[in-house]
Design goal:
Blueprint lengths: L3 H4 L10 H4 L14 E5 L5 E4 L4 H6 L2 E3 L4
Antiparallel strand pairs: 1-2, 1-3
């Protein structure tokens, strides 16, 4: 037998859009939310960056991608 909690259905207003739940986390160079990934030129990894730190990423041999 289902309990009240198990029986509850969610409306669209109850749901959080995936865009709001999925983040890259904090920028590698500051405390701002990251808006894109930058992959290392040699393919060994990636970092998350904000718009203000694209040049810093390039200076560190990362290649910023498109906005997420």
């Amino acid at each position: 037998m289902a309990t009240k909690e198990q029986d509850r259905t969610f409306t669209e207003e109850d749901r959080t859009p995936a865009e709001e739940m999925t983040t890259l986390g904090q920028c590698r160079y500051c405390e701002e939310d990251a808006v894109r990934m930058a992959t290392h030129k040699d393919g060994t990894g990636w970092i998350a960056i904000c718009d203000k730190h694209e040049k810093d990423a390039k200076d560190d041999e990362f290649e910023p991608g498109k906005d997420s």
